[in-house]
Amino acid sequence: MKIPLIDLKAQLETLQPAADIAVLKVLHDTAYIMGSEVQQFEREFAAYTHTKHAIGVGNGTDALVIALKALGIGPGDEVITSTFTFFASAEAIAFVGAKPVFVDVDLKTYNLDPGLIEQKISPKTKAIMPVHIFGQPCDMDAILEIAKKHELFVIEDACQAVGATYKGRAMGSLGDIACFSFFPTKNLGCAGDGGMITTDSDQLATICKALRVHGSGQNGQDARDILSGREIEHRSEQATDNTVYNPLKYYNYLIGHNSRLDEIQAALLRVKLPLLDTWNEKRRAIAQRYLEALSGSFYQLPVTLAEVEAVYHMFVLQSEERSKDIECLKEAGIATGVYYPVPLHLQKAFDQEGYQKGDYPQAEYLSQRTFAIPVYPEMSDAQVDYVIKVLHDMHE
Ligand SMILES: *Cc1c(COP(=O)(O)O)cnc(C)c1O
Protein backbone atom coordinates (compact mmCIF):
# COMPACT_ATOMS: atom_id res chain seq x y z
CA MET A 1 0.00 0.00 0.00
CA LYS A 2 1.37 3.47 -0.95
CA ILE A 3 0.43 6.27 1.41
CA PRO A 4 1.59 9.84 0.75
CA LEU A 5 1.86 12.54 3.44
CA ILE A 6 -0.97 14.38 1.74
CA ASP A 7 -3.02 13.50 -1.37
CA LEU A 8 -3.95 16.61 -3.33
CA LYS A 9 -5.33 14.67 -6.28
CA ALA A 10 -7.76 12.82 -4.04
CA GLN A 11 -8.88 16.15 -2.62
CA LEU A 12 -9.33 17.77 -6.03
CA GLU A 13 -11.56 14.89 -7.14
CA THR A 14 -13.92 15.58 -4.26
CA LEU A 15 -14.17 19.21 -5.46
CA GLN A 16 -15.28 18.50 -9.00
CA PRO A 17 -16.84 20.01 -11.00
CA ALA A 18 -17.05 23.06 -8.71
CA ALA A 19 -13.28 23.69 -8.68
CA ASP A 20 -12.95 23.61 -12.48
CA ILE A 21 -15.96 25.85 -12.95
CA ALA A 22 -14.73 28.43 -10.42
CA VAL A 23 -11.26 28.61 -11.95
CA LEU A 24 -12.51 28.79 -15.54
CA LYS A 25 -15.02 31.48 -14.63
CA VAL A 26 -12.19 33.80 -13.56
CA LEU A 27 -10.23 32.96 -16.70
CA HIS A 28 -13.17 33.96 -18.88
CA ASP A 29 -14.29 36.97 -16.81
CA THR A 30 -10.74 38.44 -17.16
CA ALA A 31 -10.94 40.50 -13.93
CA TYR A 32 -7.66 38.92 -12.87
CA ILE A 33 -6.38 41.28 -10.19
CA MET A 34 -8.35 42.01 -7.00
CA GLY A 35 -11.66 41.15 -8.58
CA SER A 36 -14.88 40.13 -6.90
CA GLU A 37 -13.63 36.66 -5.93
CA VAL A 38 -10.87 38.15 -3.77
CA GLN A 39 -13.28 40.63 -2.22
CA GLN A 40 -15.86 37.95 -1.46
CA PHE A 41 -13.29 35.50 -0.15
CA GLU A 42 -11.89 38.18 2.16
CA ARG A 43 -15.37 38.73 3.60
CA GLU A 44 -15.94 35.00 3.98
CA PHE A 45 -12.55 34.43 5.59
CA ALA A 46 -13.09 37.32 8.03
CA ALA A 47 -16.43 35.78 9.01
CA TYR A 48 -14.83 32.35 9.36
CA THR A 49 -12.06 33.64 11.65
CA HIS A 50 -14.41 36.00 13.56
CA THR A 51 -12.31 39.00 12.65
CA LYS A 52 -13.26 42.41 11.29
CA HIS A 53 -10.81 42.49 8.40
CA ALA A 54 -9.19 39.90 6.16
CA ILE A 55 -6.61 41.14 3.65
CA GLY A 56 -5.54 38.75 0.90
CA VAL A 57 -1.84 38.71 0.04
CA GLY A 58 0.53 36.76 -2.17
CA ASN A 59 1.65 34.13 0.37
CA GLY A 60 2.05 33.47 4.09
CA THR A 61 5.56 34.89 4.24
CA ASP A 62 4.44 38.20 2.75
CA ALA A 63 1.54 38.18 5.22
CA LEU A 64 4.08 38.08 8.06
CA VAL A 65 6.31 40.76 6.51
CA ILE A 66 3.38 43.10 5.84
CA ALA A 67 1.87 42.51 9.30
CA LEU A 68 5.21 43.33 10.95
CA LYS A 69 5.56 46.50 8.87
CA ALA A 70 1.99 47.51 9.66
CA LEU A 71 2.90 47.39 13.35
CA GLY A 72 5.82 49.70 12.60
CA ILE A 73 8.43 47.04 13.39
CA GLY A 74 11.82 47.52 11.76
CA PRO A 75 15.54 48.02 12.39
CA GLY A 76 16.50 48.20 16.08
CA ASP A 77 13.43 46.23 17.18
CA GLU A 78 13.24 42.70 18.54
CA VAL A 79 10.47 40.16 18.03
CA ILE A 80 10.16 37.01 20.12
CA THR A 81 9.28 33.79 18.34
CA SER A 82 9.77 30.02 18.43
CA THR A 83 12.98 28.41 17.24
CA PHE A 84 11.09 25.25 16.23
CA THR A 85 9.08 26.42 13.24
CA PHE A 86 9.25 26.90 9.49
CA PHE A 87 12.00 29.34 8.49
CA ALA A 88 9.56 32.01 7.26
CA SER A 89 8.41 32.94 10.79
CA ALA A 90 11.83 34.32 11.70
CA GLU A 91 12.81 35.21 8.13
CA ALA A 92 9.98 37.76 8.02
CA ILE A 93 11.23 39.37 11.24
CA ALA A 94 14.77 39.60 9.88
CA PHE A 95 13.48 40.79 6.50
CA VAL A 96 11.93 43.94 8.00
CA GLY A 97 15.28 44.64 9.69
CA ALA A 98 14.31 43.50 13.19
CA LYS A 99 16.03 40.80 15.25
CA PRO A 100 14.32 37.46 15.81
CA VAL A 101 14.77 36.54 19.46
CA PHE A 102 14.09 32.87 19.90
CA VAL A 103 12.45 31.01 22.75
CA ASP A 104 12.56 27.28 23.34
CA VAL A 105 9.57 24.99 22.97
CA ASP A 106 7.64 22.53 25.09
CA LEU A 107 8.67 18.92 24.43
CA LYS A 108 5.09 17.68 24.43
CA THR A 109 3.19 20.30 22.41
CA TYR A 110 6.14 21.54 20.27
CA ASN A 111 4.84 25.08 20.81
CA LEU A 112 6.84 27.91 22.33
CA ASP A 113 6.95 27.69 26.11
CA PRO A 114 5.36 30.85 27.59
CA GLY A 115 7.37 30.34 30.79
CA LEU A 116 10.55 31.11 28.83
CA ILE A 117 9.34 34.32 27.15
CA GLU A 118 9.83 36.94 29.86
CA GLN A 119 13.55 36.31 30.25
CA LYS A 120 13.95 37.19 26.57
CA ILE A 121 12.15 40.54 26.76
CA SER A 122 14.42 43.60 26.45
CA PRO A 123 13.74 47.33 26.02
CA LYS A 124 13.92 46.68 22.26
CA THR A 125 11.20 44.00 22.23
CA LYS A 126 8.19 45.15 20.24
CA ALA A 127 6.18 41.98 19.69
CA ILE A 128 5.69 38.29 20.32
CA MET A 129 4.99 36.01 17.36
CA PRO A 130 3.46 32.74 18.59
CA VAL A 131 3.46 30.04 15.91
CA HIS A 132 0.62 27.52 16.20
CA ILE A 133 2.84 24.69 15.11
CA PHE A 134 1.52 21.58 13.33
CA GLY A 135 -2.02 22.95 13.80
CA GLN A 136 -2.08 23.20 17.58
CA PRO A 137 -2.82 26.62 19.10
CA CYS A 138 -0.24 28.02 21.50
CA ASP A 139 -1.08 28.67 25.15
CA MET A 140 -2.54 32.03 24.18
CA ASP A 141 -3.83 33.25 27.55
CA ALA A 142 -0.33 33.06 28.98
CA ILE A 143 1.17 34.76 25.91
CA LEU A 144 -1.46 37.50 25.79
CA GLU A 145 -0.96 38.21 29.49
CA ILE A 146 2.80 38.63 29.04
CA ALA A 147 2.20 40.84 26.00
CA LYS A 148 -0.22 43.03 27.91
CA LYS A 149 2.09 43.36 30.92
CA HIS A 150 5.03 44.44 28.73
CA GLU A 151 2.96 46.37 26.16
CA LEU A 152 3.96 44.15 23.25
CA PHE A 153 2.07 43.40 20.06
CA VAL A 154 1.04 39.83 19.32
CA ILE A 155 1.34 38.57 15.74
CA GLU A 156 -0.10 35.08 15.31
CA ASP A 157 1.66 32.90 12.78
CA ALA A 158 -1.45 30.82 12.07
CA CYS A 159 -0.14 29.44 8.77
CA GLN A 160 -0.51 25.85 9.98
CA ALA A 161 -3.61 26.29 12.10
CA VAL A 162 -6.50 27.58 10.00
CA GLY A 163 -9.72 26.43 11.66
CA ALA A 164 -8.18 25.56 15.03
CA THR A 165 -9.63 27.05 18.20
CA TYR A 166 -8.31 28.09 21.60
CA LYS A 167 -11.00 28.11 24.32
CA GLY A 168 -13.53 28.24 21.49
CA ARG A 169 -11.89 31.25 19.84
CA ALA A 170 -10.70 31.06 16.23
CA MET A 171 -7.06 31.19 15.23
CA GLY A 172 -6.40 34.58 13.74
CA SER A 173 -8.65 36.43 16.18
CA LEU A 174 -6.51 36.23 19.32
CA GLY A 175 -3.61 38.62 18.75
CA ASP A 176 -3.37 42.12 17.26
CA ILE A 177 -2.90 40.66 13.80
CA ALA A 178 -2.58 37.16 12.32
CA CYS A 179 -1.13 35.54 9.22
CA PHE A 180 -2.27 32.58 7.16
CA SER A 181 -0.81 30.67 4.22
CA PHE A 182 -2.71 28.91 1.45
CA PHE A 183 0.33 26.98 0.22
CA PRO A 184 -1.11 23.85 -1.44
CA THR A 185 -0.27 21.45 1.40
CA LYS A 186 -1.71 23.62 4.19
CA ASN A 187 -5.08 22.61 5.66
CA LEU A 188 -6.72 25.18 3.38
CA GLY A 189 -4.51 25.22 0.31
CA CYS A 190 -4.86 26.81 -3.10
CA ALA A 191 -3.38 25.83 -6.46
CA GLY A 192 -0.23 27.88 -6.01
CA ASP A 193 0.76 30.55 -3.49
CA GLY A 194 -1.66 32.59 -1.43
CA GLY A 195 -1.92 34.20 1.99
CA MET A 196 -4.15 36.22 4.30
CA ILE A 197 -3.83 38.71 7.13
CA THR A 198 -6.62 39.07 9.70
CA THR A 199 -7.11 41.84 12.24
CA ASP A 200 -9.82 43.65 14.17
CA SER A 201 -7.95 46.94 13.84
CA ASP A 202 -9.20 49.35 11.15
CA GLN A 203 -5.84 51.11 11.12
CA LEU A 204 -3.74 47.97 10.74
CA ALA A 205 -6.07 46.79 7.97
CA THR A 206 -5.65 50.09 6.12
CA ILE A 207 -1.86 49.85 6.31
CA CYS A 208 -1.85 46.21 5.13
CA LYS A 209 -4.13 47.07 2.21
CA ALA A 210 -1.77 49.88 1.26
CA LEU A 211 1.40 47.82 1.59
CA ARG A 212 0.15 45.02 -0.66
CA VAL A 213 -0.21 47.47 -3.58
CA HIS A 214 2.91 49.64 -3.55
CA GLY A 215 1.66 51.94 -0.78
CA SER A 216 -0.62 53.60 -3.31
CA GLY A 217 -4.10 55.02 -3.40
CA GLN A 218 -6.39 56.25 -0.65
CA ASN A 219 -5.23 53.42 1.63
CA GLY A 220 -1.64 54.47 1.02
CA GLN A 221 -2.40 58.06 1.90
CA ASP A 222 -4.27 57.04 5.05
CA ALA A 223 -1.59 54.48 5.99
CA ARG A 224 1.11 57.13 5.77
CA ASP A 225 -0.82 59.37 8.12
CA ILE A 226 -1.43 56.52 10.57
CA LEU A 227 2.23 55.48 10.58
CA SER A 228 3.39 59.05 11.12
CA GLY A 229 0.86 59.54 13.91
CA ARG A 230 -1.27 62.08 12.04
CA GLU A 231 -5.04 62.04 12.00
CA ILE A 232 -6.43 60.62 8.78
CA GLU A 233 -7.82 63.41 6.65
CA HIS A 234 -9.39 62.73 3.33
CA ARG A 235 -8.22 65.02 0.60
CA SER A 236 -11.27 65.31 -1.56
CA GLU A 237 -9.76 67.40 -4.36
CA GLN A 238 -7.69 64.42 -5.59
CA ALA A 239 -10.48 61.93 -5.17
CA THR A 240 -12.70 63.97 -7.49
CA ASP A 241 -10.16 63.94 -10.29
CA ASN A 242 -12.02 61.57 -12.59
CA THR A 243 -9.72 61.88 -15.58
CA VAL A 244 -8.26 58.44 -14.79
CA TYR A 245 -9.83 55.21 -13.62
CA ASN A 246 -8.47 55.47 -10.06
CA PRO A 247 -7.20 58.96 -9.26
CA LEU A 248 -4.88 57.79 -6.50
CA LYS A 249 -3.56 54.65 -8.15
CA TYR A 250 -0.35 56.28 -9.30
CA TYR A 251 0.19 58.31 -6.17
CA ASN A 252 2.45 56.36 -3.83
CA TYR A 253 2.75 57.14 -0.14
CA LEU A 254 4.81 54.25 1.24
CA ILE A 255 7.40 51.79 -0.02
CA GLY A 256 5.26 48.70 -0.28
CA HIS A 257 4.99 45.40 -2.09
CA ASN A 258 3.26 43.81 -5.02
CA SER A 259 1.60 41.06 -3.02
CA ARG A 260 -2.05 40.41 -3.72
CA LEU A 261 -4.07 37.25 -3.38
CA ASP A 262 -4.59 35.98 -6.91
CA GLU A 263 -8.15 36.05 -8.24
CA ILE A 264 -8.04 32.45 -9.50
CA GLN A 265 -6.74 31.28 -6.14
CA ALA A 266 -9.47 33.18 -4.33
CA ALA A 267 -12.11 31.53 -6.52
CA LEU A 268 -10.74 28.09 -5.67
CA LEU A 269 -10.43 28.94 -1.98
CA ARG A 270 -14.10 29.96 -1.96
CA VAL A 271 -14.99 26.45 -3.12
CA LYS A 272 -12.83 24.93 -0.38
CA LEU A 273 -13.53 27.10 2.67
CA PRO A 274 -17.02 25.64 3.32
CA LEU A 275 -15.41 22.18 3.52
CA LEU A 276 -12.57 23.11 5.85
CA ASP A 277 -14.30 22.24 9.13
CA THR A 278 -15.26 18.79 7.83
CA TRP A 279 -11.69 18.22 6.64
CA ASN A 280 -10.24 19.32 9.97
CA GLU A 281 -12.70 17.03 11.74
CA LYS A 282 -11.41 14.12 9.64
CA ARG A 283 -7.82 15.03 10.52
CA ARG A 284 -8.73 15.07 14.21
CA ALA A 285 -10.42 11.67 13.93
CA ILE A 286 -7.33 10.15 12.28
CA ALA A 287 -5.06 11.75 14.90
CA GLN A 288 -7.29 10.35 17.63
CA ARG A 289 -6.90 6.87 16.18
CA TYR A 290 -3.12 7.26 16.09
CA LEU A 291 -3.08 8.53 19.67
CA GLU A 292 -5.16 5.62 20.94
CA ALA A 293 -3.45 2.91 18.94
CA LEU A 294 0.09 4.11 19.68
CA SER A 295 -0.27 5.09 23.31
CA GLY A 296 2.26 3.25 25.45
CA SER A 297 4.25 2.26 22.37
CA PHE A 298 7.89 2.90 21.48
CA TYR A 299 7.02 6.40 20.21
CA GLN A 300 6.54 9.67 22.03
CA LEU A 301 3.20 11.11 20.91
CA PRO A 302 2.18 14.78 20.56
CA VAL A 303 0.19 16.19 23.46
CA THR A 304 -2.76 18.48 22.84
CA LEU A 305 -3.82 21.04 25.46
CA ALA A 306 -7.29 20.46 26.92
CA GLU A 307 -8.48 23.96 25.98
CA VAL A 308 -7.66 23.71 22.27
CA GLU A 309 -9.14 22.10 19.22
CA ALA A 310 -6.09 21.29 17.08
CA VAL A 311 -6.32 20.79 13.32
CA TYR A 312 -3.35 18.42 12.90
CA HIS A 313 -1.70 20.09 9.95
CA MET A 314 0.91 17.43 10.73
CA PHE A 315 0.87 14.44 13.04
CA VAL A 316 4.37 14.58 14.48
CA LEU A 317 5.70 11.87 16.75
CA GLN A 318 9.13 11.23 18.25
CA SER A 319 11.42 8.25 17.96
CA GLU A 320 14.83 7.42 19.42
CA GLU A 321 15.56 5.65 16.13
CA ARG A 322 14.19 8.13 13.65
CA SER A 323 16.29 7.44 10.58
CA LYS A 324 15.82 3.68 10.88
CA ASP A 325 12.07 4.11 11.37
CA ILE A 326 11.73 6.47 8.42
CA GLU A 327 13.60 3.98 6.25
CA CYS A 328 11.30 1.11 7.31
CA LEU A 329 8.19 3.20 6.68
CA LYS A 330 9.51 4.13 3.25
CA GLU A 331 10.03 0.46 2.40
CA ALA A 332 6.43 -0.18 3.48
CA GLY A 333 5.25 2.58 1.10
CA ILE A 334 4.48 5.13 3.82
CA ALA A 335 5.71 8.69 3.32
CA THR A 336 7.13 10.70 6.22
CA GLY A 337 8.57 14.16 6.66
CA VAL A 338 11.04 15.61 9.15
CA TYR A 339 9.72 18.81 10.74
CA TYR A 340 12.08 20.41 11.57
CA PRO A 341 15.60 19.02 11.17
CA VAL A 342 17.37 22.31 12.02
CA PRO A 343 16.00 24.68 14.69
CA LEU A 344 16.08 28.25 13.46
CA HIS A 345 18.79 29.46 15.85
CA LEU A 346 21.17 26.98 14.18
CA GLN A 347 20.27 27.90 10.59
CA LYS A 348 23.23 29.22 8.60
CA ALA A 349 21.12 32.19 7.51
CA PHE A 350 21.05 33.39 11.14
CA ASP A 351 24.72 32.80 11.94
CA GLN A 352 25.23 36.58 12.32
CA GLU A 353 22.85 36.52 15.31
CA GLY A 354 25.42 34.66 17.42
CA TYR A 355 23.36 31.71 18.58
CA GLN A 356 25.16 28.53 19.71
CA LYS A 357 24.39 24.87 19.79
CA GLY A 358 22.93 24.15 23.22
CA ASP A 359 21.10 27.49 23.47
CA TYR A 360 17.68 25.87 23.00
CA PRO A 361 17.99 22.27 24.22
CA GLN A 362 14.34 21.27 23.81
CA ALA A 363 14.14 22.31 20.17
CA GLU A 364 17.50 20.69 19.47
CA TYR A 365 16.33 17.47 21.12
CA LEU A 366 13.15 17.45 19.04
CA SER A 367 15.00 18.23 15.81
CA GLN A 368 16.80 14.88 16.19
CA ARG A 369 13.67 12.85 16.97
CA THR A 370 10.51 14.19 15.34
CA PHE A 371 8.90 12.97 12.14
CA ALA A 372 5.45 13.35 10.57
CA ILE A 373 3.27 10.47 9.43
CA PRO A 374 0.38 10.77 6.94
CA VAL A 375 -2.72 12.63 8.09
CA TYR A 376 -5.10 14.06 5.50
CA PRO A 377 -8.88 14.14 5.19
CA GLU A 378 -9.16 11.66 2.31
CA MET A 379 -7.19 8.92 4.14
CA SER A 380 -9.17 5.70 4.38
CA ASP A 381 -9.58 3.63 7.55
CA ALA A 382 -7.57 0.86 5.90
CA GLN A 383 -4.69 3.28 5.26
CA VAL A 384 -4.73 4.48 8.86
CA ASP A 385 -4.79 0.85 10.08
CA TYR A 386 -1.85 0.05 7.86
CA VAL A 387 0.26 2.95 9.15
CA ILE A 388 -0.49 1.89 12.73
CA LYS A 389 0.39 -1.74 11.99
CA VAL A 390 3.71 -0.86 10.35
CA LEU A 391 4.63 1.46 13.24
CA HIS A 392 3.85 -1.27 15.75
CA ASP A 393 5.66 -4.01 13.82
CA MET A 394 8.87 -1.96 13.67
CA HIS A 395 9.24 -2.01 17.46
CA GLU A 396 7.59 -5.15 18.75
C1 LIG B 1 3.82 27.78 5.46
C2 LIG B 1 4.29 28.62 6.59
C3 LIG B 1 4.68 29.96 6.42
C4 LIG B 1 4.86 30.62 5.08
O1 LIG B 1 3.83 30.50 4.20
P1 LIG B 1 4.09 30.61 2.62
O2 LIG B 1 2.73 30.76 2.08
O3 LIG B 1 4.78 29.36 2.18
O4 LIG B 1 4.92 31.81 2.39
C5 LIG B 1 5.00 30.69 7.54
N1 LIG B 1 4.97 30.15 8.76
C6 LIG B 1 4.63 28.86 8.96
C7 LIG B 1 4.61 28.32 10.35
C8 LIG B 1 4.30 28.05 7.89
O5 LIG B 1 4.00 26.78 8.09
What does this structure look like?
This protein has 396 residues and is α/β, with parallel strands linked by helices. Helices cover 37% and strands 12% of the residues. It contains 14 helices and 12 strands. It has helices spanning 8-14, 18-29, 36-48, 60-70, 88-95, 140-149, 202-211, 217-227, 236-239, 263-272, 276-294, 322-331, 361-369, 381-394; strands at residues 53-57, 78-82, 99-103, 125-129, 153-157, 165-166, 169-170, 177-181, 195-199, 308-309, 315-318, 370-373. Strands 1-9-8-5-4-2-3 form a 7-stranded mixed beta sheet, with helices on both faces. Helix 7 crosses helix 8. It is globular and about 70 Å long. The protein binds pyridoxal-5'-phosphate (PLP). Pyridoxal-5'-phosphate binds next to helix 4 and helix 5.
Task: Summarize, please.
By secondary structure, this protein is an alpha/beta fold.
| Total count of helical runs of at least 4 residues | 14
* Regions with little confidence, pLDDT below 50 for 5+ residues: none
Average pLDDT for all residues: 95
Quaternary form = single chain
Strand tally, please?
12
**Main β sheet profile:** 7 strands, mixed
Named once each, the bound ligands are: pyridoxal-5'-phosphate
> SSE order in H/E notation?
HHHEHEHEEHEEEEEHHHHHEEHHEH
Query: How does the helix and strand content classify structurally?
Result: alpha/beta
- The share of residues in helices is 25-40%
Radius of gyration: 22 Å
User: How many angstroms does the end-to-end distance come to?
Assistant: 21 Å
CA-based shape = globular
| Biggest sheet strand line-up | 1-9-8-5-4-2-3
Please state roughly what percent of the residues sit in beta strands, choosing from under 5%, 5-15%, 15-25%, 25-35%, 35-45% or over 45%. 5-15%
